[in-house]
Amino acid sequence: NRGCEEQVLALTILIEAGFQNKLKSSATFVDLSAAYNTVWRNGFMYKFSKAILSCKNLVTLLENIPTNRRYQVFMSYKGSKWRTANNGLPQGSILAQTLFNQYLHDIPKPKGLMFQYADDIAIVYQSRGIKRREQHIKLRSCYTRRLFLYIHTKTEVCAFHLNNKQVYEELEVVFNGVQVQHSFKPKCLGITLDRSLTFKEHIEKTTKKLHSRIIIQKLIGTGWGTICRTLRKQLRWP
């Protein structure tokens, strides 16, 4: 079990270990479209009923969590009719992430190493050269068949290496007949990565955010202040 920071650390340690062993790391950062909202309810209950057959009360409790969830859409202060959500888990619930992890526990294992934190999945394959063949960092179509989840267009691939001659070389990975977008600066759990793991882009973004917050912090000591909503957001614990 890893936290968010530990998951990113484990990924970067693997890539840096590859640098030491003269290996290049090809990574796929999988983005599941509306992951929590597309959880298949019947499949969800089937997996849990197999895992906890001895406790019927717990099965009944888990069955009530994704059911009877209603929602309404507002546009220009006018609300739509109430609808019932047939699938998905309640976002913001304390148990939602734990239940989602259990739902994905039997996700198909790729050829490379897989780093999973809730709905954020990174698949890494290491080799001496940058491989352009689909099977090396393959996204299996059974992700959608077995789990009823959809791979979003924000899914990215990136090659991590120290060879400056291959700076602009892109990976070619195809999923269901569509080529996955190559990114030279992908994001993993909020951290912006780059080819050689210098974290330059992430540091620059963090510096800009910090600078703007320092300016807002200075406004608190002035007589005229600033907008209360902005100050409240600034002082809120991250």
UniProtKB/TrEMBL annotation:
UniProt keyword Repressor present: no
Any single Pfam family the record assigns to this protein: RVT_1
UniProt-listed InterPro entries: DNA/RNA_pol_sf, RdDP_mobile_element, Rev_trsase/Diguanyl_cyclase, RT_dom
Domain Reverse transcriptase: 1-180
UniProt entry keywords in alphabetical sequence: Nucleotidyltransferase, RNA-directed DNA polymerase, Transferase
Keyword DNA repair: no
Gene3D superfamilies reported for this sequence: 3.30.70.270
GO molecular function annotation: RNA-directed DNA polymerase activity
Name of the protein: Putative RNA-directed DNA polymerase
